[in-house]
Amino acid sequence: MPPAASPPTLVWFRDDLRLADNPALTAAAGGDGPIVAVYVLDEESPGLRPLGGAARWWLAGSLRALATDLRARGVPLVLRRGPAAQRISELVEEVGAAEVVWNRRYDPAAAAVDDTVADVLAARGVGVATFQAALLVEPAQMRTKTGGPYGVFTPFLRALLALPEPRFPLPAPKAVRSLAGVPSDRLEDWDLEPTAPDWAAGFRSVWRPGEAGAGDRLTAFLDEGLKGYATLRDRPDRTSTSRLSPHLRFGEISPFQVFHAARHAREAGRGGTTGQDVDKFVAELVWREFAYHLLAQNPRLATANHQPRFDAFPWRSDASALHAWQRGRTGYPIVDAGMRELWTTGWMHNRVRMVVASFLVKHLLIDWREGERWFWDTLVDADPANNAASWQWVAGSGADAAPYFRIFNPVLQGEKFDPDGAYVKHWIPALRRLGAQHVHRPFDTPPLELAAAGVTLGRDYPAPLVDHKVARERALAALATIKT
Ligand SMILES: Cc1cc2nc3c(=O)[nH]c(=O)nc-3n(C[C@H](O)[C@H](O)[C@H](O)COP(=O)(O)OP(=O)(O)OC[C@H]3O[C@@H](n4cnc5c(N)ncnc54)[C@H](O)[C@@H]3O)c2cc1C
């Protein structure tokens, strides 16, 4: 049969909004028939968690970029909205597709949707082919010596690194045949982006969603950030990490691409990068793998304590303290700077994420799920596995979690990781005239020094919501009630 007469293959894009290293797209492009590229905004299938506001903003930009990149290859991106099983089978019918291909998802709720779609298609005699693209190693491949899943990071890391090296990334397909004239929703009609008020101005100034933006971000990191990563990655006052998280979250770049680029940077000695820097960076990528491994074991990772003893934890309900935390008004500068960075840019440095999360859970005794929900709504990289696993890790309720009794002192954390106060001063301009010795502890600063810096506590910057020592004792007492 001549190629033009071959039936189309549907390429179902999801959290893999890229052309390069996209095995599903590559497979379809290599077939005889034309392809139909589709994205389904599914907020209706049971169990799926709707995206938060910041992630919806990102998705809009990412889809726009994907549509542009596909169009440059002559392929329109078809947008449909609704339950995936219904929308995909309708489209198969409309275009007469013989096969649907996609890259696998590992969030159990999303994987269940994919299983349903596969069943519906199989029942109609439509072929399905799925591929590994989002994780270096699929959760089911990682098993301990006794055959169970891993619960502790270090052995997981060791075992993953002992496997054969992850495959090399695939190039973007050069020639792609496509089918024209397939009706599509208009992206603007999906209302993914804010209008009034437009809270995303700060996002636009720091981010460029899409595959090209991801590639540029990786290049900049390899040139300037990877060198020194092992020692500087905890410094929020430096551009010391890759900021690839939202790009990885939406699959605008794959972990295979990032892994091999980092390894290659070491071999090429790029920018003075050391083996230690690369090993540390790869270990962070493996934390992402580990989080998915945990989510695969526990679909309720975002809602249920991994350690059931935390079900009895005496969390406080305190709406005004929660609001102060959300808006960066706790009176602890490193916490407030982080929460303001999050609100303004949709992202926060990892060290600061740990400090603000610890503050909510331990100083304010507010349930980690409140924090997880706030992050879900405000992070551009809000990720079903990383967010839930990290919150449980900080709260002490997770697998291989930081022990609850280890309580960060937010002043000392600020002084250690933002020694000149540059990060705090950037996000809290009211404190910019305080010296480095005071900027992380305005409440401990002599009144004359505060006055000289133009700061009146309670007017320019809040007094602390809680006293660190008192809060620490209260948190330990709360923990004692659930000790086994
Ligand atoms: C309370 C809390 C909530 C978090 N929520 C999220 C989230 O929703 N989405 C998210 O991607 N990360 C989350 N993280 C993990 C981490 O903070 C971010 O991945 C990291 O800050 C992203 O910045 P980066 O890309 O510059 O990281 P880099 O240091 O450059 O690391 C490279 C990549 O490795 C992965 N990674 C790094 N650290 C971790 C980690 N601790 N756990 C899992 N993966 C990691 C990310 O994909 C990251 O992009 C959370 C951490 C905490 C403490």
From TrEMBL:
EC number of this enzyme: 4.1.99.3
Keywords, alphabetical: Chromophore, FAD, Flavoprotein, Lyase
One MF annotation (Gene Ontology) recorded for this entry: deoxyribodipyrimidine photo-lyase activity
Photolyase/cryptochrome alpha/beta domain boundaries: 7-136
Class of enzymatic activity (EC top level): lyase
Annotated PROSITE patterns: DNA_PHOTOLYASES_1_1 (PS00394), DNA_PHOTOLYASES_1_2 (PS00691), PHR_CRY_ALPHA_BETA (PS51645)
Pfam families: DNA_photolyase (PF00875), FAD_binding_7 (PF03441)
Family listed: Belongs to the DNA photolyase family.
Protein name, per record: Cryptochrome/photolyase family protein
